Amino acid sequence: MSEGAGEFGRRLRRGRETAGYSLADLAKRIHFSKGHVSKVENGLARPSRDFAEACDAVLGAAGALSELARVAAPSPGGGISGLPMATPHFTGRHGELVLIGTALAQATATGCSVLTGMAGVGKTALAVRAAWNAEQDFPDGCLFFDLHGAEVSSAEALDRVLRTLGVSGADIPPDQDGRANLYRDRLRGKRMLLVFDNVRSTEQVAPLLPAEPRCRVIITSRNRLNALDDAAHVPIAELSTAESVELFRSVVGERQRMPTEDEPVAEVVACCGGLPLAVRIAAARFRSSPTWTFEEFASRLAGEAARLNALDDGERSVAAAFALSYQRLPEQLRRLFGLLALHPGRDIATHSAAALAGVGVGEAERLLDQLADAHLIMPRPGGYWQFHDLVRMFATEHALSEVPSADRDTAVRRLLTLALSRARACDELLAPQRFRPSPVPGVEPLSADEGFPEWDTALSWLDVEWPNLVAMCRMAADRGEHERCWRLAFLLRDFFFRTKLWDPWIETHRHAAASARAVGDTTAVAMTVNNLGMAYADRGDLDLARDHYEQALALFREAGDDNGTTSALSNLAWVNLYLGEHEAALRDMRVALESYRRTGSARNAAITLRGIALTEVELGAFTDALRHAERAHEDFRGSELDLAMSLNCVAWVHFRADRHAEAAAHYEQAAELGERGRSPFEVARAKTGLGNLVAVAGRPEEAADLWAQATRLHNGLNPVTVGEAAARRRLQG
């Protein structure tokens, strides 16, 4: 190494230490690896021009380091350097640069680093930056070749590399094996770095991998290249919001009307989904349009319908980048990619993908793996898959349009049929005694290996899948699948009641009510409106609840549905209880109880007994209230949730009757059953009741702790509908 390189290293170390930077700090700021900075400081590596200029900027050396680097540069006649210019707007990727730098520097390295990621994620820029970082470690040269996906064959690539290495055309063998042998021979004993960009497959690049252990290779690909077993695989993810903002500002430069705060810029780059290509295009468009205000530009980009068009600056296009990946897919994968865009949720289960494609789950998983290998979808935990937002837009606009309309309709119907079958199987486990309308014709029950072995498994599935089911309910309504819409909403009601997910409960049932009206099914409308009233009542919106119950009561009577009429009447009685109209509530609950017992509706009768007990408490009839509450508890069978609710009711009666020891014992049991039944709401209710008891006993600190536990479990205990919450409010003053 020259004396100039040594002087550069000494000067660099002094500047770094004066600035108070560690090796890692400086490496992160200049986007070079810590190992390379160390080598330069110790005179073991020559500083490149980019390296010196970056150090000048960070350390404020006013060009002194760049001048030293010029002196330290090797004399003509050294190895060839064919690396393209590194972008001055390179942002982030510190961790990836460290991984690549480590792989290039290790003596035991496999010799190959594979950078994979979706189109537009910045693989090429990262590969070039990493290569420049390591350039001084490869005295025999650094070469860059773009293989253009499948456009350049292995034989053609070998021809280009050999000519670059100085082999005349006449000496290049005509066959691929001959060229590969000559290529490996020419690299024997050399220390070179080769960058192969846009590689399509392992088969394409395998003949280009040198046998010389001192040579290194960086590969970029939109495919995972899993068959390169010995390579160091570096997945490239999207930029963070902060990095995207930094990149946007860097490309825009000093343009006027650029906001000084990061928040509005963050909203713009969020539309780019962390893709450097999209951020660069957006920034370039804003920079080159001086008449736009930032607000006008942000508005143009915010509209999803035209976003892909907005991310096109005439020379670069996000849609075109995605199109290259899409066009390389075989027909079966192109069809699945388009059909996946029909799924209305963010996370797509393998079973749902299989339904959309009309194939078995095993075949769907194989195809999904291939789409993920092409970085067109992303695998998620638990057997789910996800689009990047911009890729979903591309799939919707370009891939889905290639699927015939009839095939799309059939795929949606298969997806909704699967959703109905699985939701019904869950509801049968969560509420086995609940009435359910007959299935839609053609919707078969799940087989034993497709279903859920127990209620806990079913609940776990619903905990993950409910946002998708809500979206499917909306999609069914929008596409005129009205029978599937209202039935799916009906099957989700018990889950929403258990979890107190009031907003999706209300949303699905609004769609369902409109769908039931669209098919002219009065009973379906009545059931849906009745369930919608339950959501409002459970949330504490009593006026809305009463309005819906009254609508349901009139509809059930019109349809001649006696069971439905009893249900609506009972629900109105609960509203009267909450509104303080206790005599009316007790009267109607007794009528409902007699009807339920006459028709053998044991669970509904037990629920009504619980309501009667709560009403009698408000009337001061504690003996009757306790008898009815305990009878309700005895009549519930099998459901931890029902048992927890009934025990909380018994505890409440004891609390109001000043039997505090009995109340505490029942609240403890209710909390235990609530936990076993996975009901944070009932556990929170029991904890609130226990807090009330210790508050009455004059132990405010214990009360505050129990109330805090209850709030952490569920912050939705409404004092209007939950007696324990009302008592807590009074005790807290």
Automatic annotation (TrEMBL):
| Xref: CDD domains | HTH_XRE (cd00093)
UniProt KW keywords: TPR repeat
Q: Is Membrane given among the entry's keywords?
A: no
Domain annotation HTH cro/C1-type: ranges: 12-65
Outline the TPR repeats, range by range: 526-559
What InterPro entries does UniProt report for this protein, alphabetically? Answer: Apaf_helical, Cro/C1-type_HTH, Lambda_DNA-bd_dom_sf, NB-ARC, P-loop_NTPase, TPR-like_helical_dom_sf, TPR_rpt
The UniProt entry, under Pfam families, shows:
HTH_31, NB-ARC, TPR_10, TPR_12
Domain of life (superkingdom): Bacteria
Q: Does the keyword Ribosomal protein apply?
A: no
Q: Name the chain's protein.
A: Tetratricopeptide (TPR) repeat protein/DNA-binding XRE family transcriptional regulator
Q: Which organism is it from?
A: Kutzneria viridogrisea
